[in-house]
Design brief:
This protein is an alpha/beta fold. 42% of the residues lie in helices and 11% in strands. It contains 14 helices and seven strands. A seven-stranded mixed sheet has the order 1-4-3-2-5-6-7, with helices on both faces. α11 runs antiparallel to α12. It starts with 9 loop residues before the first helix and ends in a 22-residue tail after the last helix.
């Protein structure tokens, strides 16, 4: 039985979102992928030796929705027992999309993905390149991409390729598509589309799966609009707990401060100033998105005093490292003892 995380306790969700080791591991992997010119797919929280069949569920996850969870369940029911949620460093036609950071999207996908399976990261947005990267890493696996029907039209659109047929041949020689109804597009519309002369040769590689009618119109963009307006979107409880605590969508100022705080933590750890396990870093991240007065004081410091530094444990003065030159952490980090937590976060 697959083990999902669509309704994790809010404390466990926030514990992950405030975990410097987890956040920095994701950030480092994304940065490494962005610099690599080769197509790559990196299992982040899933096994590297999956069974004979592996389903890849690509998405922007901005934010993850109930539809993503339903697609995962549908793939398993169709005979693909292992599902990897795949987040790309570059997402086709969504490069400038506002909302959750890539790091937070990755954390939520990691939490929501069921078992067997998990989160994988890639540096390619086009499916034929993802298929190449997946087969390169897992040459023995039978691979499927889990998509909504609307994505099929994009996959076959010649605008995205120098040589459409060559790219599609590369994709379908390595993978099949598991296609779920989406919006007004269902099995009948996809069958008619695949029957066209230019698509017909790939028709056997398109497999239909089912999605509840109530989820066919659900989208991340709709959820973002609802959250930005202060409403309650139809999202997994895990996602609602995360976006509410961090101020994502509803409180851009709080959420922007979180991104700055993560950058400062990354600089401090890379510079050797602090260990990612230092409990003050968790408190620092919690405070950056805290809705109270203490959180607001830190946000002002992050916005207005980027040159403040902190002292190393046991040192008598401020550290004069490259971290200071690049911004560093606010000086009052020294006053945090690891016991300050975001509302709802565990104390250990």
């Amino acid at each position: 039985m697959a083990l999902g995380s669509e309704s994790l306790p809010s404390q466990e969700v926030l514990f992950s979102l405030l975990s410097p080791p987890l956040l920095l591991s994701i950030l480092r992997t994304l940065e490494d992928l962005s610099r690599d010119p080769r197509p790559r797919l990196v299992p982040f929280s899933c096994g590297t030796s999956p069974g004979r069949r592996l389903a890849l569920l690509p998405g922007s996850f901005n934010p993850p929705t109930e539809a993503h969870l339903a697609l995962e369940r549908a793939a398993r029911e169709a005979g693909w027992p292992e599902v990897w949620w795949v987040l790309a460093t570059r997402i086709v036609e969504k490069e400038e999309q506002a909302g959750l950071s890539h790091v937070d999207r990755a954390v939520l996908a990691h939490l929501l993905s069921g078992r067997p399976g998990g989160l994988a990261l890639t540096n390619r947005g086009l499916y034929f390149e993802q298929a190449f990267a997946a087969r390169d890493r897992l040459p023995e696996a039978e691979i499927a991409f889990v998509v909504g029907a609307d994505k099929v039209f994009q996959i076959f659109d010649p605008r995205y390729y120098r040589e459409r047929d060559a790219a599609l041949s590369a994709l379908f020689s390595r993978a099949v598509l598991l296609v779920a109804p989406r919006g007004g597009w269902g099995r009948e519309e996809i069958e008619a589309f695949m029957a066209r002369p230019e698509n017909r040769e790939f028709r056997p590689r398109v497999i239909h799966i089912e999605l509840p009618t109530s989820l066919r119109w659900l989208s991340s963009s709709r959820a973002r609009s609802q959250l930005e307006g202060g409403g309650r979107a139809d999202l997994p409880e895990t996602v609602l707990a995360a976006t509410g605590a961090l101020g994502a969508f509803a409180s851009p100022e709080r959420y922007e401060a979180r991104q700055i705080a993560i950058e400062r933590v990354a600089e401090a750890v890379r510079g050797g100033e602090l260990s990612p396990w230092d409990p003050r870093l968790r408190s620092f991240l919690a405070l950056a998105s805290h809705p109270g007065q203490e959180g607001e004081r830190l946000r002002r410091a992050l916005r207005n005093r980027p040159d403040q530094t902190f002292s190393k444990p046991g040192s008598e003065g401020p550290s004069r490292s490259r971290v200071q030159k690049r911004g560093g952490l606010p000086s009052h980090l020294e006053s945090l003892d690891g016991n300050l937590h975001h509302p709802g976060t565990p104390s250990t």
